[in-house]
Amino acid sequence: MISRRILLFSILFLILGISLFSFLYINVLNRPRIDTVPEGAYVVPWMRPYPSIQDLPSTFNIDAVMANALKLSVTFTITMWDNSTRVIPSTVYLGHDSQYLYAGGKFVGMHSNPASEPHGWTEPNVFKIYFDVANSGTLTTPEAGSSMAVNIDIPQDTLVGSSWSDMIWVYEPVTYKHMVWIPAENYLESKGQGQTVFSMAYNAADYDNSTGTVTMLFARYLSRPQIADINALQMRSGERWVMGFLLELEFQKALDTRADGWPRTTYGVWSNDSSWWPKLAIDLSNPPATYPGVPL
Fold this sequence. Notes:
Layout: H1 2-29, E1 42-43, H2 62-65, E2 70-79, E3 85-96, E4 100-107, E5 124-132, E6 144-153, E7 158-172, E8 178-183, H3 184-190, E9 200-208, E10 213-221, E11 240-251, E12 258-262, E13 279-283
Parallel strand pairs: 1-13
Antiparallel strand pairs: 2-3, 3-4, 4-10, 5-6, 5-11, 6-7, 7-8, 9-10, 11-12, 11-13
């Protein structure tokens, strides 16, 4: 009789223990991140490009494709290798659905990268976005970022290709020997690992050689658990995140890249101080039934 009572109480305590653990895991350890949106934050709207990025023709109007996006007017001023400046009036477009962050830019008068060699190597024009994912004001590994590059051939003045990388804030021991943003694949390669999963899903680019306007557009996953160790942007359904963010436009040339950042002209690329970065809010708690401008 006593043994049966002991067994009964043991089962009861086991059930209570499992219930308590489940409650703590759901409500404390694994509770959704719901950030308060501060005044002045840039709220990314629910939207989808139309046509979808993977269905875009070789030439497209990003203003129409991203008609319902948040639009930021930015003027980048890049000091070139001959100490001249290239002033680039730009519009940056941001939107999201439940799966992707859509980011793009129209960079008027950017033209081709002057570091390219005619009939030779074509250096890329690059658009980047960085995130302080924890919104802590201090960058800590892994953080998250995206970089998209296009290559424009100088003699023909035509777009010849595009590429992209995940970016990670990490200590780089060989070339820079301090904390820096580098492509995630370079970081993994330095550790002897391969890169098989990326956060970017689709991208498209366009170039108008009559105005020198470079257009870039990409979709990056809001969650990619397979690469959580190199990408801290891992949102879940129902969450609302506020993150510091930074934009950059650059002409690449090995270790002598020429760039400009927004909102600051020079932003301390070697510094982990992100306390002055503007805030970006992405809210996955209120999905719309339909998306404006996108047929059912």
